[in-house]
Specification:
Layout (H helix, E strand, L loop, with lengths): L9 E5 L4 H11 L4 E8 L8 H11 L3 E5 L2 H9 L12 H18 L4 E3 L13 H10 L6 E2 L11 H4 L17 H10 L16 H14 L6 H5 L5 E4 L5 E4 L3 H7 L6 E6 L7 E4 L4 H13 L9 E7 L2 E7 L7 H6 L6
Parallel strand pairs: 1-2, 1-4, 2-3, 4-5
Antiparallel strand pairs: 6-7, 7-9, 8-9, 8-10, 10-11
Helix pairs in contact: 1-7, 4-5
């Protein structure tokens, strides 16, 4: 390797919360490079993990910055991924390219020299084959400034290796789905806090994918908004007879999350009993509003009452409905509910 410069170089490390990305960051930091961690948020992976990232910062001795992928760009990616979907509605390859394009921009913004990830050759079938890893490197624009330390010795040398910023001989040659090498290395390097592999992204889940397809089929991809997809993360979803949609919170936390979407929907609540917040499509017919109110009553603490009062709030005004809650085993519930069936 040509030794161009022995000064410490700055790199950007993509930190997912999992073990592999932390190992990659640690390996490069231990070679004397200055590592800045970054976690890119897409809106479809759990974000209730701030304590985990504080522990990661302590384990690695680096700062991990939280950045968000542009929502409109991500929406277009979900609607029409250039490289297709995985098993559900997960555009994994396009997502990886988009995230690394954002990483390239941020690398340049903070005057870093290269980007590192925890990718392992052969670990994931869609994004970590040799051909797709080369594709990601090329289409992200990073090219040879993208280093994957855990499999580097199985891949072509990168600029950091060629210029002597990192020692290629100290990088690894991990391949496949087994995690024995990573777990042993984590113990050696003192990395104790990480999320478990696989899962995490809602777009990979069949149920969530079905909800997305239902929105596309009903509303059309061209009219689907960021809000239409973000709200899919919460509640029970129903398509009512005249075409309106009702989204019913399942617990207090979901009710709070659904309140963030009140500007885009009308809302229904039950008077006198604790229960869900229901969102319903603006412009819903009286029949759809009535059925949504009866569904709301079904999931409230007043479900066994003969009748209940439901309050519809729309455009800053309220209207009261006297309704009979749907029975617990009503066929209408299963008929209207948007759920995956194989």
């Amino acid at each position: 390797m040509v030794k161009e410069n022995t000064d410490r170089h700055r790199c950007l490390a993509l930190i997912s919360g999992g073990l592999d990305s932390q190992l990659a960051a640690k390996l490069i930091a231990e070679q004397g490079n200055r590592v800045v961690g970054v976690n890119f948020r897409t809106g479809f992976i759990s974000e209730d993990d701030r304590e985990l990232y504080r522990e990661i910062e302590n384990d690695l001795g680096i700062e991990v910055r939280m950045l968000r992928v542009p929502e409109e760009d991500y929406l277009e990616l979900i609607k029409s991924p250039k490289h297709g979907y995985g098993s559900a509605m997960n555009p994994c390859l396009d997502c990886r390219i988009l995230v690394l394009r954002e990483a390239k921009k941020y690398m340049e913004e903070i005057s870093a020299d290269f980007v590192i990830t925890g990718e392992v050759l052969g670990q994931r079938p869609m994004t970590q084959r040799k051909d797709t890893m080369d594709l990601i490197k090329r289409e992200s624009g990073l090219g040879k400034r993208l280093l994957r330390p855990l499999s580097a010795r199985l891949l072509s040398p990168t600029i950091p290796e060629e210029r002597g910023w990192v020692d290629r001989d100290k990088l690894l040659d991990i391949e496949g789905r087994s995690r024995k090498v990573q777990l042993k290395l984590a113990e050696k390097l003192g990395i104790n806090h990480y999320s478990q592999p696989a899962g995490g992204c809602l777009l990979t889940e069949e149920e969530f994918g079905h909800r997305i397809r239902e929105v596309f089929d009903h509303k059309g991809k061209d009219k689907t908004t960021v809000s239409d997809l973000k709200v899919l993360k919460y509640g029970r979803h129903f398509r009512l007879p005249d075409g309106a949609k009702a989204i019913i919170g399942r617990d207090e936390e979901e009710n709070e999350n659904l309140e963030e979407f009140l500007d885009d929907y009308w809302s229904i609540r039950i008077l006198g009993f604790s229960g869900p917040l229901t969102l319903i499509t603006r412009g819903a017919t009286e029949r759809d509003v009535t059925i949504a109110a009866r569904l709301t009553g079904r999931y409230s603490q007043g479900r066994d009452q003969e009748t209940l009062e439901a309050i519809l709030e729309r455009n800053g005004k309220t209207k009261t409905y006297r309704i009979k809650p749907l029975e617990r085993d009503s066929d209408l519930i299963s008929e209207l509910r948007i759920e995956y069936s194989s």
